[in-house]
Amino acid sequence: MKRKDFLKGAGIAGLGLTLPLPKLTAESKAAELPNACTLIPSETAGPFPLDLTANTYYFRQDIRESQQGTQLNLKLKVLGLANCAPMTNVRVNVWHCTKDGVYSGYNTANNPGDANSKYLRGYQFTNADGEVEFTTIFPGWYNGRIAHIHFQVYVSSAYSAVSQLTFPIAAKNAVYAAAPALYTKGADPLSYSGDNIFSDGYALQIATLTPNTATGGYDSYLEISVQGSGTLGVGHIEKETFKVFEMGQNIPNPYASNTKVRIDLKQSSDVKMELWDLSGRKVGTVFEEQNKGVGIFEVDINPANFGLPAGNYIYQFEAANSSGVFRMPKMMTLAK
Fold this sequence. Notes:
CATH topology of the largest domain: Protocatechuate 3,4-Dioxygenase, subunit A
CATH class of the largest domain: Mainly Beta
Structural class: mainly beta
Largest sheet: 4 strands, mixed
Strand content: 25-35%
Order of helices and strands: HEEEEEEHEEHEEEEEEE
CATH architecture of the largest domain: Sandwich
Strand order of the largest sheet: 4-1-8-7
CATH superfamily of the largest domain: Aromatic compound dioxygenase
Radius of gyration: 21 Å
Number of strands: 15
């Protein structure tokens, strides 16, 4: 299977994944955040959103490319509003401007960038804790907008939440002051009330911002509550897949030696399960069988068979029959 076929397995054009990062010191601030189990405000996608899933290039954790700026490790935790539980296996898109306030993918009078560029955009897939992490640079600012990052939580093909986050003003301007050669525009002059997005409220959208001595940059953390009950939402495409098979989360998860996945196959199909690392590279085929009959069975995954180090991986089940090809990916965590 080609990488683009794997990405289509999310039931839409793509999915996003999580790469391991050093543990964010900002995580300890989570209990202080005011937005736990409160619906994140819906905001405009901005003037330059691009469709991240239209190009599999955006399936990545490090979105910097060659862009210069102070390193920012961004962690987002997605919660279901109904029960305040983690939303696992949902896609999260992020995008933001450069240190100079320019977005990739567009070249206009107000955004003098390269229309063919793709930097500072990417997507991932939430893990068992409902979390994703990105490595990026701290964004600059531009006229009329305070420094911010756009994000979309794609719960299913039927529902997504689009919003933006910003940072504490003093901490944000301290980033600019510490690197004047990079952030040549200096301090961000706007207040929250002067920004045309956050002027009607911002308490739920202020991410933490703390120095990271290991990277010389900063860590940032925000909890995001979306509609749902801490489980993957079900849209039209997902319902079509469920007519052919249902696949459970691997148990146990995380796991140290081996783990099992329960499959309920509802139509006789050619089936296979594959493993993928978080750069979109297939690391192995767990099993493959032609014309497998209807029924419930378990798939045993032993990481020793593939020489896998600890980390997050995607397992994807595929069933092909006269109705089409149906795929479903989920994330699993191999513990140390």
